[in-house]
Design brief:
globular; alpha/beta; about 280 residues; five-stranded mixed beta sheet; about 30% helix; 12 strands; Metallo-beta-lactamase, Chain A
Length: about 280
Amino acid sequence: MAVLALIGATMAEAADDPLTRPIAVERAAEWLAPRPPVRMFGNSYLVGFGGLSVVLIDTGDGLILVDGALPQAAPAILANVAKLGFKPRDIRYILSTEPHFDHAGGIAALARDTGAVVIASARAADGLRSGRLAADDPQRGYDGRFPAVPQVRIVRDGEALRLGRTIVTARATPGHTMGSMSWSWRSCEARRCKSIVFASSLNPVSADGYRYTAPTSRAIVTGFRRSYAVMKAVPCDILVTAHADQGGAKDRFRTTPGACRSYAAAAERALADRIREEGRR
């Protein structure tokens, strides 16, 4: 009851701020279920929630945040950063996985409150600046609007972002949106290092009436198949997914061998099932 009261109070305060005004409130209890911030490995931390992942990287020369959850989540994200002993104003970059309201909704407020530079793919940058889903987005029918992000720095597939002792590599993983980007980096403890991947959504979710077998969806399906190959090949000791429960996961991050390959294979099967189902209609 105390947790629900706190969530309600936070949402009431956020309602007065146009950049943190609550959206998708029917899913907020699930997606924004409170979780304590936790170190995954080395300089990499989780500062998100039970249903939506947000990662913090301490580069030694500033902080990097990956994703921003819903608009109303921004204050809680920054509070989790502070609980770890870091200063939110030290966040230099905010990386976006996909221009959907559940992952990018909080980015405008986070950028405003920290002064951080927002970084995304060219297609995702278009979506962030407009605060709307792209015309070719399979979920366009939901028209999930979110606070627009006026300034976005564009990153290319394979481009390395360097800050302090950390190099984060952008890995295009289109399909769920054509601007989706996954991010990978190495995190070390003494002489032991691990490869960490923050993966964008790969599941073939869509609004009612969308057909992946339609001629207009060919680029989307091709994008998905490219993304599966990327995710199966990327070095991956620790996997974080944009939705913490994707692929049936019960933990906030996965350390099992082959986690990225399994994640891609499950999404690949889901797309194949969806295409077969459409073929029967």
